[in-house]
Amino acid sequence: MTRNTAPEITPEKLYTSRREFIRALGVAGVSAAVLAACQEKPFLQGGEIPTDTGAAVPSPQAGSTTDEFGDTLTSYDDVIRYNNYYEFTTDKEGVARLAKNFQTSPWEVQIGGLVEKPSTLSIDEIRRRYPTEERIYRMRCVEGWSMVIPWQGFPLAALLEDVQPTSDAKYVRFESIFDPKELPGQKNKYFPWPYVEGLRLDEAYHDLTILATGLYGKDLLPQNGAPVRLVVPWKYGFKSIKSITKIDLVSEMPVSLWMESAPNEYGFYANVNPEVDHPRWSQATERRIGELSRRASLMFNGYEQEVTNIYEGMDLTKNF
Ligand code: MTE
Fold first, then answer.
1. Beta-ladder partners of 111
2. Most informative mutation of 238, 247, 256, 297 for ligand 1 (most atoms within 8 A of CB)
3. Model pTM greater than 0.90?
4. In angstroms, rounded to a whole number, what is the distance separating the alpha carbons of residues 241 and 227?
């Protein structure tokens, strides 16, 4: 169930709570190791496009100040000041300043690969074609912190339906902007830029999966991935790729930037799973930004009811 709440802009001051007291120290490190064999279970035959992608989207009332569990939204201030966006810097509190003048208009997104109707859409066209709705989602970073964010977005499925994936399409590959002149972090040769992420086709079609163009009723700021980013709330935050320029339907599992740079640490699925530790830290608990003590992390980030069915029969400790 979704709500069209685009015009209902919740006053920012309602959400502005205290700044967090303790800032996270964790910065995702990287190491080079051999890719752990990924025991992929076939999920769709012959490019079958899923029609029933699970239970309804959890839906607190439009303009709610909490998620469906009653947990308070993270303040706007924290959402726009505490960011992971390695194309700018690995310093979370430095991203906003460095990204301030990043030009996100004009902007084009190329959609192609294994589709009947490839297209290139300007961000204005995307906004016109796909009305947004509010989705209040938890975001759990792999580093062990989390937020509750009211996004404005639309189902990725709507865009995929328009380009018509062919029967060979099994995955969706996303690419962020590549522009080392404007993005100082891309001079860091350690990372295989551009930032790439991927989803299985059924994950991409799931109703929880959105492309977001705003949050808190305002257009996205550059630090949050303007002008358009992915949000997949049951997966670790790194799957939610920012500032997308390319979306390709492909037949092979895409290799993400994180799989390539730290394959022993980051798998393709990256579903939030408190039972599977990161090689260097536990994933059992998380620090909700704005709170003092840690809380238990939830399987699939609390979206278990909505997504469990798409992983039926898969060993999620191997397909991490
Ligand atoms: N997308 C790009 N292009 N570059 C990044 O460094 N960081 C990811 C994800 N998307 C990242 C990205 C990580 S690790 C997280 S936790 C979220 O964005 C953070 O989103 P936020 O800064 O809007 O909270």
1. 119, 247
2. 238
3. no
4. 12
